[in-house]
Design a protein that fits this description.
heterodimer; A: 541 residues; mainly alpha; 5-stranded antiparallel sheet; two-stranded antiparallel sheet; 22 helices; 69% helix; B: 362 residues; two-stranded antiparallel ribbon
Chain lengths: 541, 362
Amino acid sequence: MSEYAITAKAKKPALLLLCLALLTGFVQQLAAAELSLEESWKILSSKNYKKKARAIEAIAQHNPPEAYVALKAMLNGQLYYARRSKELYILKEAGDNYIFTPLFAGEAVTRESKRGFKKIRINNRLRSLIRQSLAVMQLKDDDADVRLAAVQELLKNPEAEAAALIASLIDKETDSRVQKAMRTLLAINQLEYGDEAAHPHAIETLAASLNTSAMNALRNYQAPNKVLEKKARAAIKRINDQRDLYAKAETMFFGLSLGSVLALAAIGLAITFGVMGVINMAHGELIMIGAYTTYVIQLLMPEHIGLSILVAVPAAFVVSGLVGIAIERSVIRHLYGRPLETLLATFGVSLILQQTVRSIFSPLNRSVETPQWMSGAWQINEVLALTWNRFYIIIFCLAVFIALILVMKKTVLGLQVRAVSQNRMMARAMGVRSEWVDALTFGLGAGIAGMAGVALSLLTNVGPNLGQSYIIDSFMVVVFGGVGNLWGALVAGMSLGVINKMLEPWAGAVLAKILVLVFIILFIQKRPKGLFPQRGRAAED
Amino acid sequence: MRMLKIIANDKPGSRLLLALAVVSVAVPVLNLLVPENSVFHLSTYTVTLLGKYLTYALLALAADLVWGYLGILSLGHGAFFALGGYAMGMYLMRQIGERGVYGDPLLPDFMVFLNWHELPWFWHGFDQFWFAALMIILVPGVLAYIFGYLAFRSRVTGVYLSIITQALTYALMLAFFRNEMGFGGNNGLTDFKDILGFNLREDSTRIALFLASAAALVCGYVISRYIVSSRLGLACVAIRDAESRSRFIGYRVEKIKLWIFVFSAVLAGIAGALYVPQVGIINPGEFSPLNSIELIIWVAIGGRGTLYGAIIGALLVNYAKTYFTAALPEIWLYALGALFVVVTLYLPKGIVGLRNLRGART
């Protein structure tokens, strides 16, 4: 805030100086070109500000690899020189110590005081010169992303000088994104300072931009006549519409990613609950085991965090699947046909699993490291950025779902599972080992829960209560989608996620969740068998 | 007259009532009359603990009535318990008056803390005990009526019903956690001073609350027993065992289910109302689905469909819980988990069933 005030105050003298500089500018420029790079570096440690200015210009023009770091340090008051050797150093403070790193090759020096080194002083004029030089350097950088960032930085506070600079560079620009940002900047400038004939074109350019500065420029625009005013208003409306659209797209994306998590957690349940008629209250704990598996795998391979997630997916499937099979063999197989009893027994199992994990890993939350390739965001345009981890989770959910559908429809196991769920006795008569199928089906559902755990571990902390917070949601998804229907689970999960995220802006996260719960309770009254009810004989039990 | 006959026919039940009567006489005597340094003195802490168990037993009784006799496995009975508790808590909050930390004569502390200037409309009337008592019955009753009316009319049964009752209590928990709701948010209602003008810290008040809990349990038991022994009770069992068939015969299944469900919810509400002054706090945690499931296991362990089994189960499990959480906190969840598994696998009729099994063999 205070810094801003200072620059605002300094504007008038700065303008005066600018005029002076323009007058003497061409003489200086001639002189600057004559300075060699080595000379320029040396001049920096002199006390003459005019000379220093020339040196900075020369350095910017030569643009050696050290130039950026040096100028940046100078701007921040971190560029020093040794009193004796006149060598340039960059200062870094580490606790009570000062670390002087030489700008060129050499060993860093750690000192307790700054004695022997002197700061290179700058004044306001040099400061603005350095800023400009840095911007120019960045605008001429080889990396398009750096250039884009530089233009965007200029866009935040578009000034006439910047526009002149950009105008000289725009023709050489090859990257389309950078070019677009540059055009926006020029249009803003034209709207403010250019003559009236250029205004219509400028407004059109700005209407296609989503940048905040473009919006502000249009809002502040004093239209000289009615036609232009109308045009400007239409442009503002167009930008707002576009932004609304992207905001909706973003909500949709968040909703889908939340929905994917819900669907992932629920798909496994849809198998055990829907296909087998078992209410597995320990499902949440199987998710938790998957999450802990991810955590352990990361502990085992700390060098390869990126790879660890890929290893964790099958590992979690196997671990949770085996735990699931153990639960099925020891408890659930005695309780087939008595769903309410399975609910109670598996709830007991869930308590035991929770306490076991608490004893092994301590009740504290653990966190799983997000690998490099999953962090960051996919910047689609200036207002819409999709975070990669959410994006991957949607893809992961769909992949798991497709794989599961294939297993159920195309493999022998799937055929047998469907046969047993439709008519156990008949399936047995046809030679299906129903006990074996039961165990494998349960293991499959549990394994998918484990994979959901891998996804969840990347979104939240891993703790013993992780599963508990998802179990009710998962049941809601299955009940909403219709028991025994995998598609139902997917559609229900996605739609509940989207509904939740759409309600959130005006209701708040907690109220949105309550509303969704109430909605499901009411929905079940209307359609007791969910969105996609099972049809036929099997449904009438 | 008929009532007496029913009770006389219900041998284990009448024994349980007798035991309750003995305890109700013994506890005040041991606490108030026996000097404190005597071996037989019962500390006020224990009295309160016993009173708490009795309210749990009433809650379990309510759950058994719908689960054991109607086959409705409600995983949301804790919600009715908590609502009754909140109604009582609101009365107790209003009784604090100017003795709160902020000394506001009208607003409870948490509202002053939230910078509210007016009492929300739903807090009016709670300064009167009769109104609070009415609400203790009405709020759980009306909620159960609306929920049951919708659910039973559209024939939501079995697992679906269990899951949406769970959703109900979960939604209520989330709602009560919100400060904006006006129920004290996270912290709930606490710091109570007195009830009906009697100081809650006095031993005699504690004893009175204990006796009230015992009386409520006895009344609840007798009425429930009367219901299940009547023709209505037989219709309930018929619905539990063959819902469609009962409907075809001509019973109004929805109506029967609805009224028993409402009655059960009211019992749970009363239990909650007696629970709150004894433990001295009510917070949204009481709504947590875990509590509701846990109370089902009390019933299952005691023996569902017997009424007295539910009471025995609640007392036993809670005693074990108090003992284990103090002595071996690590073990408790293992033990509770194992109880769930073992009881459902090997004791489908609960502890009470164990006795019958032996009786059948000899």
